[in-house]
Design goal:
The protein is built from ten helices and no strands. The chain has a single domain, classed as Tetracycline Repressor, domain 2 (Orthogonal Bundle), CATH 1.10.357. The longest helix has 28 residues. The protein is elongated and about 60 Å long. 24% of the residues are buried. The chain is mainly α and 198 residues long.
Length: 198
Amino acid sequence: MKEKIISKASEMFLKLGFKSVTMDDIAAEMCISKKTIYKYFSNKELLIEQTTATVHKEIHEIINTIILKEYNAIEENFEIRKMFKEMFKSSDNSPVYQLKKHYPEIYEIVMAREINECNTTFEQNIVKGIKQGLYRKEINIKNYIQFYYNLVFAIRENISSEKEGQKIELEVLEYHTRAMATATGITELENQLLNYTI
């Protein structure tokens, strides 16, 4: 039952927002009593902590599956972007923006987890791109990870519209890729942009 509550709460929080969804809403949606939810989660904050941890795990499992498909480095980033677009397509409001605004303590926990995972993913992608001749050899990998990370999360934290956030994140991905790309990389980037639908 605990897993079912987390699954339903995740779906509702991402679609309708962390602030607007109540324990009553979740109970009604699941056709269970609120008491049943409180048996597993003493308060809404605890439920949000558990759901964000579960969503984080699911996202990074999907990212790892994409990485295992052995796309080239630029294509890999676009496949990850498509995954995020698909995952949050029913959201009007950015979940990260809401979390920071209404539950800042939980937001800090989420971000600490993300920094670690994302830095590893970004670094692996850049190393892969250099080996494939898509990114320039002389770039400072640590700095480029920091640049990209700061841009992506600044958008997520400060833009409330999920659709607008997705649009700007695609522009950030293009900006990031162009900054690192070789001539071959630019050609691959143009191909990816041509085939990407917002």
